Automatic annotation (TrEMBL):
Belongs to the enoyl-CoA hydratase/isomerase family. Pfam families: ECH_1. This is Enoyl-CoA hydratase/isomerase family protein. SUPFAM superfamilies: ClpP/crotonase. GO terms for molecular function: catalytic activity.
Length: 256
């Protein structure tokens, strides 16, 4: 598939999806959402890690309000365009890193929070900007935020629509880490390479187990752990990991 609003490349197990509308701070148009969905699905089939980042000075400024103007049917757009994209990111069979290079606002912030790991440059920020234009947070924001930063901080961030810096987001537990601007690209590339060379099936199990824990009681979670660990215990990567440990060498995982 050819892309006009994003770039996509996959090499050495790492797929990089770059939002590429820097003139509008990578605002999300209908075409961009369609192209992103195709790229996320492609990454799940051909890569071992997916990185989502932005071109220019912003990660993503959220919904492109000029895309449909006052005629925008928000309920239909969220249901038919945002939900499939967010589900594709959330359910991606390989780890997903959001490399947040700059401002992430509105749906752009919540798009980043759908990833498994968020790495942000110190210049980046997260803004639940919705109430500034008379809306509520969407694109999963009311789901991610209370779970990541607690009810009180989530409510304040949504009501006041104030900027949360990358460092503050890391301190709150909203994101994994904030790193220096000048080393940002090299850092997320190294993180992506680490995951691409890791035990992909085990990573998939980690995602499944952690996400199920909020709804499970202890017995159900222990049973799920046992089942997933049983699957991992029969894998090539487990055998290779043990052999490498015993031989005091680096493992050569195959991702299965």
């Amino acid at each position: 598939m050819s892309y006009d609003t994003i770039t996509y490349q996959a090499e050495a197990g790492v797929a990089v999806l770059t939002l590429n509308r820097p003139d509008v701070m990578n605002a999300l148009s209908s075409q961009m959402r369609t192209e992103m969905l195709a790229a996320v699905r492609a990454a799940g089939a051909e890569a071992r890690v997916l990185v989502i980042t932005g071109a220019g000075r912003a990660f993503c400024s959220g919904q492109d309000l000029a895309d449909a103007g006052a005629a925008l049917d928000m309920e239909a757009t969220l249901r038919d365009e945002y939900e499939p994209l967010l589900r594709a990111i959330y359910d991606c069979p390989v780890p997903v890193i959001a490399a947040v290079n700059g401002a992430a606002a509105g749906a752009g912030a919540n798009l980043a929070l759908a990833a498994d790991v968020v790495i942000a440059a110190e210049q980046a920020s997260f803004i639940q900007a919705f109430t500034r234009i008379g809306l509520i947070p969407d694109a999963g924001g009311t789901y991610w935020l209370p779970r990541q930063i607690g009810f009180a901080r989530a409510m304040g961030a949504c009501l006041f629509a104030e900027k949360v810096t990358a460092r503050q987001a890391a301190d709150w537990g909203m994101i994994w880490e904030a790193v220096a601007d000048d080393g940002f690209a090299a850092h997320w590339q190294a993180r992506a390479a680490q995951l691409a060379n890791g035990p992909t099936a085990a990573y998939r199990g980690v995602k499944q187990a952690l996400r199920a824990s909020a709804a499970n009681d202890l017995d159900a979670q222990l049973a799920l752990e046992a089942r997933l660990q049983g699957e991992c215990g029969t894998s090539h990567d487990f055998r290779e990991g043990v052999a490498a440990f015993m031989a005091k060498r680096a493992p050569q995982f195959q991702g299965r």
